[in-house]
Write a structure and sequence with these properties.
This protein is α/β, with parallel strands linked by helices and 362 residues long. The chain has helices at residues 5-44, 51-58, 66-93, 126-138, 163-176, 187-196, 210-217, 233-245, 273-281, 289-293, 299-308, 335-357, and strands spanning 101-104, 107-109, 115-119, 143-145, 180-183, 199-202, 223-226, 251-255, 285-287, 313-317. The chain has an eight-stranded parallel barrel, surrounded by seven helices. The protein has a two-stranded antiparallel sheet with strand order 1-2. Strand 5, helix 6 and strand 6 form a beta-alpha-beta unit. Bound molecules: phosphoenolpyruvate (PEP) and manganese (II) ion.
Length: 362
């Protein structure tokens, strides 16, 4: 050991350098093992991520002080992220295996067909919903949507018809023979909605409202979980995990755009969420181009891009007389536009499905 500071520094650097070489060899081995584990998960149809195991893996880390422990944890999180990134790319390329969610007898989402969910932003009246519902069925939708408890930014805007709206939605859905979906905003309305409506929606503004997630999960209905407008994909996956640990694995995820600096659209549709969330969670991922776009002109191109990215379904706000919508009128499409979108979306979906059956996708 040298006394001279410069010489000592050189010695220490050399020692650190050789440790780094050892660590990098170990990391190579770790990445290879993780890659093999990812392959085993894919063959077994398991999702890429197991959030409970990830949390448990950090628990045995020791440090000689809280500061050291935090540093170790940060290092292991970074290792985990790097390895996950590699596995995610591989899995997304191979197209994730998705566990379909049964909505109603014979209606499944995520089973390889493209599911269309359509209907008005808000349930406004029986007559209006009835007219829209017919158009929705004609476009070949699998589910009728309609908001009853509306999360409005301004208290002076229409707040929805509440429980009366739920009754109207149920009636109209029965008339056209389709299941329905509606958003729940308050845990106290969950039971009422669940008795009448097949799918409970958790809106973007509620994605991290854990008491609501728990209540919705326990209502015995599939849950459509929308991405928080400021939520990372990690946070979406964890919100879904709240539903799962509350006993409900019937989960549909939904990308609906996030806040960015872009202001030409209402939100920015994050297409990358489609392959990544599918790979991570094995859950069906739907895309709502309507709230992302904010303008009906952009709904179709975003919808088609979502299908090309592998979305399991689309959620499109539709109104028999779009400009007369009581909420989100600017983004609502009319019956003809909906039919056109549905037709072209299915053509893209079917073309990709045929390629993948022939093993021709990258
Ligand atoms: C909705 O789908 O009615 C809605 C309010 O959407 P989001 O929660 O994505 O804003
Ligand atoms: Mn809306």
């Amino acid at each position: 050991m040298s006394d001279r500071p410069e010489a000592r520094l050189a010695e220490l650097r050399a020692a650190i350098g050789s440790l780094d070489v050892e660590i990098s060899a170990l990391l190579e081995r770790r990445l290879a093992l993780a890659g093999e584990a990812a392959g085993a998960k894919a063959r077994g149809g398991a999702p890429l991520r197991d959030l409970r195991r990830e949390a448990e893996a950090l628990a045995p880390l020791r440090g000689s002080s809280p500061g050291r422990r935090a540093a170790l944890e940060a290092v292991f999180r970074a290792i985990g992220t790097a390895s996950l990134q590699q596995q995610t790319l591989d899995r997304a390329r191979a197209r994730a295996r998705i566990s379909p969610v049964e909505i109603a007898p014979g209606v499944r989402i995520g089973g390889g067909d493209l599911a269309l969910i359509a209907g008005p932003c808000s349930v406004e009246s029986r007559a209006s919903l009835r007219a829209t519902a017919r158009a929705v069925r004609e476009a070949g939708a699998a589910v009728l949507r309609g908001g009853c408890f509306k999360p409005r930014t301004s208290p002076y805007d229409f707040q929805g018809l509440g429980r009366d709206g739920v009754e109207i939605l149920r009636e109209c859905a029965r008339e056209i023979g389709l299941p329905a979906v509606t958003e729940v905003l308050d845990p106290r309305d969950v039971g009422f909605a669940a008795e009448r409506i097949e799918i409970l929606q958790i809106g973007s503004r509620s994605m991290q409202n854990t008491p609501l997630l728990r209540e919705a999960a326990q209502a015995g209905r599939p849950v459509l979980l929308k991405r928080g407008m400021g939520a990372t994909l990690e946070e979406v996956a964890k919100a879904a995990e709240h539903l799962r640990t509350a006993g409900n694995g019937r989960i549909l995820l939904c990308e609906r755009g996030i806040r960015t600096f872009g202001d030409a659209t209402r939100f920015t549709l994050d297409i990358s969420s489609v392959p990544i969330l599918r790979a991570w969670t094995g859950l069906p991922v739907l895309v709502d181009p309507s709230h992302a776009a904010g303008y009906r002109e952009w709904v179709e191109p975003l919808a088609l891009a979502a299908v090309a990215a592998g979305a399991d379904g689309l959620l499109i706000e539709t109104h028999h007389d779009p400009d007369a919508s009581w909420s989100d009128a600017r983004q609502a499409v009319g019956p003809e536009t909906l039919s056109g979108i549905a037709r072209r979306a299915r053509r893209i979906h079917d073309a990709l499905k045929a390629e993948s059956a022939e093993g021709r996708l990258p």
